[in-house]
Amino acid sequence: MTLRPISAPEHREFIAGRSSASFLQTPAWASVKADWKPESIGWFRDGDLVGVGLVLYRQLPKVRRYLAYLPEGPVIEWAGDDLEEWLAPMVAHLKREGAFAVRMGPPVVTRRWSAAQVKAGIADESVRRLGDVPPHERSQEGACVIAQLHELGWQQQTGEGGFTAGQPQFNFQVPLVDEAGEPRTEADVLAGMNQLWRRNIKKADKAGVEVSLGERADLKAFHDLYVHTAERDHFTPRPLSYFETMYDALAAEDPDRIQLWLARHEGDLVAATIAIRVGTHAWYSYGASSTEKREVRGSNAVQWAMIRHALAGGAHVYDLRGITETLDADDPHVGLIQFKVGTGGEAVEYAGEWDLPINRAIYKAFQVYLARRG
After folding, report:
1. Domain 110-139+170-350, what architecture?
2. Which of 44, 53, 63, 225 minimizes the number of CB atoms within 10 Å of its CB?
3. Tens digits of per-residue pLDDT, 334-357?
4. In the sheet where 48-59 sits, what is the strand order?
5. pTM (predicted TM-score)
6. CB burial of residue 226 (10 Å; 0-12, 13-18, 19+)
7. Residue ranges of the domains in the chain?
8. Residues 6 or more apart from 353 whose CB is under 8 A from it?
C-alpha cells in the first residue's frame, strides 16, 4: 500500500464510483472551508487507486505546524483487521507535511436504536442518555475499528452531550431500503412515522403549503429565515456568503449534489432547508422555519418533500444529521430529538472522532489553547 497526493478529478471520480461517502470528504468541500489548507490524498495498491481522503490543514499561529483533519473520513475499506496498513502511510505523509496531530472521523457505525426505543427512553425518568438504552444492533465492524484504533495509539475525542470536537457522533436516519436492500415505498415510510408527523403532513397539505425546489437566487430568502430561526433558538448563524460558497462548490462538482427547498403558504416563506446528496446517501443539512404560521406545519411538509425526493432518486438513507446523546426530558435538546424521532427512523452512533498526536508537546499546548478558548 502506498499513498500520495492526488488531483481533484481523481478524487471526484473515485467518490463517484462508490455507493456512498460523506460530502465532507468530497473535493468540493475544500472550497467551502477556505480557512483550511486542503489536500486530496490517495491510497494505491498495485497501481490502482483504492482509497481517498480530503485532508484539511489548520495552521497554528506563528509556527508552520498543522492539525491535519479528515472530517468523516478517510474513504477507505474500514472492515477488516489491517487498519495499520491504511493508516501508517497516511500518518507518515501528514507528518512530512508538518502535522503535529491527525484528527479523523471513521464513517463506521457502532450502535443503532429504533425510534420506539428512543421514545421509550425519553419517557423513562431513570434514563438520562442514549447509552443507557440497550441498542437493537451492535456492529462488530465498529467494535473492531475502535479496538484497532486504541491499539494504534489513537485517542477518542468526546464532547458534552455526545457532540465530538467536530462532527456529531450520534445521528438520526430514516432507512429508505428494507433489510433485503429493496426500496421502501412512500406509503411504507409514511406508515413508519408517528401519528403527529402524519397528521402534520396532512395539515400542511390541507392548509395549502406548497413546497418547491429553489435556486441559488433564493439563498437570500433562505438566509433571512435562517437568521430569524437563530435568534429564536439561540444559536449563532453562519453568514450568507458561507451558503453561497457551499452551493457554488457542491453544485459545480455535481448538479444534484445540493438542493434548496422552500415551503410557502399564501406566498409567505414558512420553512426552508438545504439538502445534500452523495451516491445513495441523502442529508438534511440546514433548516429554517418561521415563528409565524407555525400551525400550517411547513417544517413537516418540507421534510416529507425531501424524503420523497430522496426515495425517487434511489437513495438508501435519509440522514437528519446530529442529535445529542441526552434523553433527559428536561434537556432543551430533547425537542429536536423528538422532532427527528417522529420520522420513524433510527438513532445511529458512529465511531466518533479520533486524534493521533505526532508531536506530543505541541498537541498538549493545542489542547490547553482549545480549553481556554472554549
Report:
1. 3-Layer(aba) Sandwich (3.40)
2. 63
3. 888 999 999 999 999 999 999 999
4. 2-5, 37-45, 48-59, 66-70, 99-104, 353-357, 155-157
5. 0.94
6. buried
7. 2-106+353-373, 110-139+170-350
8. 103, 104, 105, 156, 157, 164, 165, 166, 167, 169
